[in-house]
Amino acid sequence: MHHSGSIGGISRSSLATMAVPTGLVETPATPPAEWANAWSVAQYVPQVGLVHHADGAVATLDKTAAEIFDLFSTARSAPANTYHVSPNGNDSTGDGTENKPYRSIWKAVAVANASGQPAAIMIKAGEYGKPYNPSQFLSLRPSVDIAFVATGGRVITGTWDDFPASSIDATYQNCYSYTLGNVDRVIDRVRHDADGFFPNLQRVTDAATCNRIPGSWTLQSGKIYINRADGLPVTNANTRVLRSSGGSWRFDTPVSIFVGAGDSISGFDTMGGSDGAAFHYQPTSKPASMKAVVVERSTFSYCGGAAANSNGTLIADLHGLALFVDCDASNNSKDGFSASNESLSGSESHFVTVNCRAVLCGRGSAQSCNSFTTHQDVVGADLAGEFGRTNGGSVRCIGDTLTWLAGTRIKDDRGDLVAGGGTTPAAIMANERARIWADRARIAMPPARAHASADADALVSLRAMPPLRSGPQGNGTVANW
Question: Is the pLDDT of residue 131 over 70?
């Protein structure tokens, strides 16, 4: 029997145009001409491949994240200085060598800044809370190129303080209490929810209510009260209090930054962030040459809550390239991955995410919360990302941005009506004059919800995608590419 290369009467080429996998074969992903013409990073132009499988796609670049960073800086490949940090180190007696490491990441940053030369900071796996995190309460920012390299496993950093010896409150004896100022959220480190996150304890209005409700917390008169649902004593092992007054990764000088792994098991996990983001890069001046911000195998979650609305990542006014590879910016009170370019005249911003995820963003009262968003004048791309279950448009691009999506999966955006906003659920939104091109993307939205929406002067172009369940919305153009 002769089938002429067809399966069930449909040719393989026809299946391929509908993004139906017929084998794990890598195919090139070609950007739209307008996007390619706007790309102005001379050091690196992405060469992209996609491998489709039953659950979506995986993207490949022609270079590793580390190799791309090395095109911009010697901080990783040939640093002038290398400093070591360990949970067993000491900021007073250590000298930053492998045998006498520092305890704090910020200490190594301070020494690197003083040297005035590109540096590598090797950080041993372990926990680095608020007293030890990279920014030291937002007051210390790198002024030289730095490669932050995790070794030996996961480096966990964030905005928590280790507990003092907490004790049962004298008045509210279901609660453990101690003196504390600001708090964004309290999480239970013993359990995981369906998405793999530590669940939040419920914030209540006062100590008396906290005493009545297991699994709750409150701030009252300069004290925090915590009532665990399991009745266990509150310890650093089972409970984490994320503060709102500190940040983790913060950059305001135009330098090149690498945050990644030194081996196959390592990376960074950041818990909590300031009112900007867990990872916030926003220089106050434009450099003479383009800079790179390259982050791999890292997570940025639990940002914002009771006191602040925070993104997982925020790249603003970067003259150069921001690249996130195999990263997760989920479970934040505002956006997951966010990029903008509006304050520094002449800056040319490029923002790319590869095999990344951002779901469950906008978990609170914030409006217009997105999984992936670009603002004003950014050339952006997502390659094989996973986005959705977010409040305010899962992929939302605004202003004069140009965004290329290849192999992106978007599911179940929720809009922000429940938070008092005016954004109905939409998987892809192009606002103002934004241009979005989606190649072999997968969109799953409930019936009568927007799969694609474009303002009057905006454009959404679709290529090699099955028909959308619901028709396009908005007054702009949604058409085949």
Answer: yes
